[in-house]
Amino acid sequence: MANSSFESFHPPQRILMGPGPSDVNPRILEALSRPTIGHLDPKFVQMMDELKDLLRYAFQTSNEVTIPISAPGSAGMESCFTNLVEPGDKVIICRNGVFGSRMQENVERCGGVAIMVDDPWGRAVDLNKTEDALKAHPDATILAFVHAETSTGAMSDAQALTKLAHEHNCITIVDTVTSLGGIPLNVDEWELDAVYSGTQKCLSCIPGMSPVTFNDRAMEKIKNRKTKCQSWFLDVSLMLGYWDGGGKRAYHHTAPINPLYGLHEALVILHQEGLEDAWARHRLHHNALKAGLEALGLELVVPEAERLPQLNAVSIPDGIEDAVVRKNLLDAYNLEIGAGLGESAGKLWRIGLMGQSANRGNVLYCVSALEAVLGELSSSIPRGKAMDAVSAVYNK
Amino acid sequence: MANSSFESFHPPQRILMGPGPSDVNPRILEALSRPTIGHLDPKFVQMMDELKDLLRYAFQTSNEVTIPISAPGSAGMESCFTNLVEPGDKVIICRNGVFGSRMQENVERCGGVAIMVDDPWGRAVDLNKTEDALKAHPDATILAFVHAETSTGAMSDAQALTKLAHEHNCITIVDTVTSLGGIPLNVDEWELDAVYSGTQKCLSCIPGMSPVTFNDRAMEKIKNRKTKCQSWFLDVSLMLGYWDGGGKRAYHHTAPINPLYGLHEALVILHQEGLEDAWARHRLHHNALKAGLEALGLELVVPEAERLPQLNAVSIPDGIEDAVVRKNLLDAYNLEIGAGLGESAGKLWRIGLMGQSANRGNVLYCVSALEAVLGELSSSIPRGKAMDAVSAVYNK
């Protein structure tokens, strides 16, 4: 049944440069350990109100309905589909990586009809193809797509896709799990309708919560549902009784108190830095990392114009074994980089520069650790050039 | 959009004697602040395996499928219903408080048919009525009930109810949110089939995760489903790819790393104390609290044989205003007790003695704070007797 003895778990100190979780700011770790209070405590309710304002800042929205779902990004995705899709609804899904397929699963499990628009992994969603699909399916009510594909590092044009959707009487469901806080994301200006994100990417918080924001168009569709939302836990009309009860908060579920302290702190940190400075920081360190990787002879997979600075997909060179490199980096350097996902498993690495991980020290450390590990495995890796390439970007 | 300035949130130090969250052990708070590592890190996977063993100990089960859901108890409840109930399935639900109604919502949102067996709030589930319902509905496949009703403090006979269910070819879904770690719960010996719990009650961890355990009968029903589980996030067959992947763990969602450190620590603490000692501790402090409350002239709502030691529903005396008392306790004494829920709002208080909160200091503090606050509001509250009554129990 159980071993005879168990001890406290003491994790190693890693440097997290995978696709998330990213390095967590010590201020956030400290916030997690503050005393737990009740989920209906007036002081907690005050914190919740501030948290909503901070999320509005991060999303650049004034949407009333802007809250953190008490579960990971996958549940945030499900909250959008389960509230917005009714049986029989037709949803056009742009798929250019793993998360498009997950959207398809969501739509079908809600009884909806998924129309897939496929683009190559590692490329942005194609606007023309999407427009053709919208024209071919005038009865579609929703267009769903991923702003920043975590499985490939590709960035799509969320504003243009939403404009197309609106021209064809569709609302949008937008995955911003990896974009929030890392690249420009302007929910109101771009008129995105239902948006979900994660906490463990460019917000540099712990995983386990999913910020979402719904505008009036999305809420109108929810209010006009003919059937109940199939999830009780994710039913936005019930969640709002707790998160937005005006003077009175109704118990729905018990909110994850301490993780919410952490998210509040992460958003205070983002607000103190300022969104534009955070976006510029991700861009700067991406340029330095790119210079270092290219000096090692490595190739970035995604074309420059469609590339996410915070998530760098790198082709694994011929003759180099994926797992050996990642294991060496982890064991000898405590450095985590990400493996490929789905069809790109074994073909690429995903090197994250998200939130707190996007800093000069991490870039230097990652490039030099890669030089050491790859250099031991292959004589064709150029040596002694990468650090200069990195420094040149910072000294520009 | 956002205020001009935001600051870190510093919660007050409360004493948590409501229906959960309970006081969190400082060891658990410290564990939360340990460095975040990746959800596929070999060290994390090792911790996950230990966590499953520790949960098996807490549940007293050898069920292979014993994992923490990455979301609060309400999602744990939903994971049971959404995996086990298919459209058209008939489910008998014993309702003796708020959570029976929530079960009904769950069944209906899964397309199932809910047959309600009602008992008075504050009483155990009636075995005869349940047996009658099982006889009247031979096509039912599931019996669902709450072992420890958090809304009333009533305890039902989980073993006897499950025996009845099995005699009528039903499997059971059992809510043990408030019982796990606080009163005897023997999943294997009692043959409970699908069981969910919470972390913020007698485990004294933070809210936000939900331990569940499914035996072979439950897993067999899931494997024989004709339709897909309507939730992608809560689909147990997908979750197991991550939690139980043998050598290889498949990414499903990103687990809440640091909260799982906290849960691991909470379970290590429980294992060190030992389940039987933990149950005895809850019983002891309940006896002392009861003596103190009765010396103040207060009445416990639930008959003694059906009473949960860890959650004490107390009638609010005539002429005493619920909200005033709870506000005074919170503002002047940093003491949280729980309000009534649903139909018992305004009629009772729920005083929790869960996990870390079940200690001698808390009992003395709570009784003396109640004496002070109630004494200011009403001259009919007996003064100067409660402390002796409490001490008498401890000095027995």
Structure description:
Two copies of one chain form a homodimer. In chain A, helix 11 (275-295) packs antiparallel against helix 14 (386-394). Helix content of chain A is 42%, strand content 14%. The first copy, chain A, starts with 14 loop residues before the first strand and ends with a helix. Chain A has helices at 26-32, 42-59, 73-84, 98-109, 127-136, 158-167, 187-190, 216-223, 236-243, 257-273, 275-295, 322-333, 360-377, 386-394; strands at residues 15-17, 65-69, 90-95, 113-118, 142-146, 148-149, 154-155, 171-175, 194-196, 210-214, 311-315, 335-339, 348-352. Chain A folds into two domains: 26-271, Type I PLP-dependent aspartate aminotransferase-like (Major domain) (Aspartate Aminotransferase, domain 2, 3-Layer(aba) Sandwich); 275-394, Aspartate Aminotransferase, domain 1 (Alpha-Beta Complex). Chain A is of the alpha/beta class and 396 residues long. The first copy, chain A, contains 14 helices and 13 strands. The radius of gyration of chain A is 22 Å and the shape is globular. In chain A, strand 3, helix 4 (98-109) and strand 4 (113-118) form a beta-alpha-beta unit. At the A-B interface, helix 1, helix 2, helix 3, helix 4 and helix 10 of A face helix 1, helix 2, helix 3, helix 4 and helix 10 of B.
